[in-house]
Amino acid sequence: MDTRLLEYFLAIAREENITKAAESLHITQPTLSRQIQDLEKDLGKTLFNRTGRKTTLTQDGEIFKKRAEEILTLVQKAKDELSSTNTQLHGSIHIGAGETYQMKQITDLLSTIHQEHPSVTYRLYSGVADDVLEKVDTGLLDFALVFEPVQKEKYNFIEVPSYDQMGVLMCDDHPLARKDQITYDDLYQMELLVSTRSEINDTAFVSRLKNDSAMHIIGSFNLIYNASLMVSSHLGQAITIKDIAPRLPHLIWKPITPEINAKLVLIWKKYEVMTPLHQLFLDEIRKLYSQA
């Protein structure tokens, strides 16, 4: 299948109008219509609902859209990778991660690489572990920084020597805000917000919280920013890791005692052929972690 067909398809999906899509692609509307009809015939599926002036995706079209985007991304990645040589590096590094301050070590390293190889570009993807791992599996991400537990036998990996600490985000006028540390028993006095992210949700500590019928859990969240706004509105206290919540006025983070740490690993696909750029990144991250 010609990748131009995928670009045509995505243009219609984006514009929701064949005429506008044709204009953006600098081709005629009849040509675009004929190409999409041939694509649907080839697939044996109707990809668009054609009602009035608006052209929307069918359920099959939504599925095809996701795969078309992935294919075009992989094609571009391949072009980028082939443009690198051992002496002059080009291309992109695609990295996925959840919310973690340990990403700062990687971004510092990327900054160093950029100073030496200014032609290199970077693609960062933030998301929950399941989503990030799927993109590693399909080749859309080169590396991912994820919390344990993870199926290490499925990937090449490096254990990150530092870790994230679990605690509670609360308003500074909360009765327990004066304490240096928060105990498990203290949590009974709170209205808790807990993460739905599998990498946090599946930890023994959060599982214990959710299974404790006396614990008052009033809500959940997947990313911390909007949850921190709830906390700032005095709508609960959020269980979250250190240094990732935005620094909003009157919010403070307190560690839980005994200390609860979340460990991370940097993973990449097994049997992946490393480009010079990716090998450089891997060599440098190994050096960085060995010095920690």
Task: For the structure shown, list the relevant keywords.
292 residues, alpha/beta, Arc Repressor Mutant, subunit A, D-Maltodextrin-Binding Protein, domain 2, 3 domains, 9-stranded mixed sheet, two-stranded antiparallel sheet, 10 helices, 11 strands, DNA binding
Explained architecture:
One of its GO terms (molecular function) is DNA-binding transcription factor activity. InterPro entries: HTH-type_LysR_regulators, LysR_HTH_N, LysR_subst-bd, WH-like_DNA-bd_sf, WH_DNA-bd_sf. Residues 1-58 form the HTH lysR-type domain. This is LysR family transcriptional regulator. Belongs to the LysR transcriptional regulatory family. This protein is α/β, with parallel strands linked by helices and 292 residues long. It has 3 domains: 3-78, Arc Repressor Mutant, subunit A (Orthogonal Bundle); 91-161 and 263-290, D-Maltodextrin-Binding Protein, domain 2 (3-Layer(aba) Sandwich), CATH 3.40.190; 163-260, Periplasmic binding protein-like II (D-Maltodextrin-Binding Protein, domain 2, 3-Layer(aba) Sandwich), CATH 3.40.190. Helix content is 41%, strand content 24%. The chain has 10 helices and 11 strands. It has helices at 3-15, 18-25, 29-43, 59-82, 103-116, 129-137, 198-201, 204-211, 224-232, 276-290; strands spanning 48-51, 54-57, 92-97, 121-126, 143-147, 155-171, 192-195, 217-221, 237-241, 251-255, 261-269. The strands form 2 sheets. Strands 3, 4, 5, 6, 7, 8, 9, 10 and 11 form a 9-stranded mixed sheet that branches. Helix 1 (3-15) packs across helix 2, helix 2 (18-25) packs across helix 3 (29-43) and helix 5 crosses helix 10. The longest helix is centred in the N-terminal third of the chain and has 24 residues, at 59-82. The protein is globular. It starts with a helix and ends with a helix. The model has no long low-confidence stretch (mean pLDDT 89).
